[in-house]
Amino acid sequence: MIKLIGILVVAVGFALRGNTLLVVLAAGISTGLAAGMSFNEIMTWFGKYFVENRYVTLTVLLMLPVVGLLERYGLRERAETLIQRAKAATAGRVLLFYTAVRQISVALGVNIGGHAAMVRPLVAPMAEGAAQARHGVLSEKTTEAIRAHAAAAENTGNFFGEDTVFAVGAVYLMKGVLETQGYPVSVWALSFWGIPTALVAFGLMIWRTWVLDQRIARESKPPSTTEAAR
Amino acid sequence: MKLLNLELFYIIAGGFLLLVAGRIAFDPTTGKRVGPALFWGLLAIIFLAGKALPPVVVGYMVSLMVILAATKQLTGARRWEVTAEMREAAAAKLQDWIFLPALLIPATAVVGTLFLSKLHVGAWWLLDSANLTVTSVCLGAVVAVAVALRLTRAPLVTPVVEGSRLVQAVGWAIILPQLLAALGGVFSQAGVGPVVAELAARALPTQYPLGAVVAYCGGMALFTICMGNAFAAFPVITLGIGLPFIVQLHHGNPAIMAAIGMLSGYCGTLLTPMAANFNLVPAMLLELKDKNAVIKAQVPLALGILAANMIIMYFCVYRF
């Protein structure tokens, strides 16, 4: 039970809004001490796993120079202009379309997208541009909501397309865990049973993007227009 | 032998970080210089020489970085160095050509995954097939920089200057996913998982088929919320709850259980600040005021999908 102290440290740390890095380090140190490791031993594990997991940071890091350069030459502004030419576009529809592209491509085993490579330079500006074309200048609150939903579209498409059709990392992890316990399963069965959830996720995304469009319309309606219409 | 492997891209990223640190250290216009330069310099060394350094040294270096971040040594981001008018003028000049490098990133990922991964001369492979997704995306980033430089005729230093601006906008949060992955490793070394699985199995009515499904899907989501990673939760919850109750006690189908169980873990990922690379880093990248805005936008989705998972699993796992 005492080993769960790390989870407690994380919960309390996040609740008190402490620096997240410090909370995570403290959780690791307290858990290690509770499990009877020495301080140097804990540092060794942290160092080992930090080096092993460099690839987690790598893709974001390598994306920043090119995204920064393209932004310097007006990529985001151009993405907003481009989408304003499409009359049927709304912020919600842009995000729904992106979710679909992401789900299908990930299902086929190709990882296009990402928060740094696609959402910041292209998807979020396009969604904002589509909303601006319809509703004029957006409030800061509305812009924040559109951007947060753009990140949600990326995550939903990524997570709930992954385990379908083509077997990827997660499928092999499941197969490995089950086989070491004496349950041989085929990767096709594992992939196939990911499909119902993938469809549910997309269905919920249709609802969420519709709600977002409603919200944008509501928040950007100037209070005087209803008066003037009367 | 793989020509384009992870180590090569670690060196490119490390070199970039070293330039970022150098720019901060020698730029008299920035406020604090020592703290940020040290932070990015340490990260650069870990990227360049992580494998060669003793893990315990890296551990202390990481701790120093955490202390620098916690004592607010990394102050706010640098402002735009060019005005909005200049950017709009550049956009008008380049027209839609500006999209070419941006679209080359996903295009290279597709070509890399589907074709380049098969290229080899004897034992010399072009791409590292073990880390295909990551190496393809990295290759895309490098190709895109080259094309963007040619297209914009920008000086060679521009990607570093602009990249440095974005690195500082994201700030210390950029290492959070990596530190959380390390925490997951420490947790598993300390044996945290089995304790959680045992508690959950004892607290929930797993003697009923529905109870077992709810405990397993809910356990996957909850443990993922704690760990920030569904892959870490999967073996723990599957061995602790899934296999003993759904498969052995109630004779459920292990493939259906595992597939939907993992996706229930992803619902937890949508809900937790511990999954920093999916929820917190994007909030920094999109420059949101509320760091939890992405999680808040995802709550209805996550809860809806989790409920659907429990229903789908209950109606399928004992039937097929």
- Distance, first to last CA of chain A: 67 Å
Number of helices of chain A: 12
Uncertain spans of chain B: none
Strand content of chain A: under 5%
Give a quick account of the main beta sheet of chain A: strands, pairing sense, barrel closure.
Answer: none
How do the SSEs of chain B run, as a string of H and E? EHHHHHEEHHHHHHHHH
Strand percent estimate of chain B = under 5%
Radius of gyration of chain A: 23 Å
Q: What fraction, in percent, of the residue positions of chain A are helical?
A: over 70%
Number of helices of chain B: 14
Summarize the structure.
Chain A has 230 residues and is mainly α.
Write the layout of secondary structure elements.
The complex is a heterodimer of chains A (230) and B (320).
Chain A: H1 5-15, H2 20-34, H3 39-52, H4 54-72, H5 75-84, H6 91-107, H7 115-135, H8 140-162, H9 169-180, H10 187-192, H11 195-220, H12 223-229
Helix pairs in contact in A: 1-2, 2-3, 4-7, 5-7, 6-7, 6-8, 6-11, 7-8, 8-11
Chain B: E1 2-4, H1 6-25, H2 34-49, H3 55-70, H4 84-94, H5 99-114, E2 120-121, E3 124-127, H6 132-152, H7 158-170, H8 176-190, H9 192-203, H10 209-227, H11 230-249, H12 254-271, H13 276-285, H14 293-316
Parallel strand pairs in B: 1-3
Antiparallel strand pairs in B: 2-3
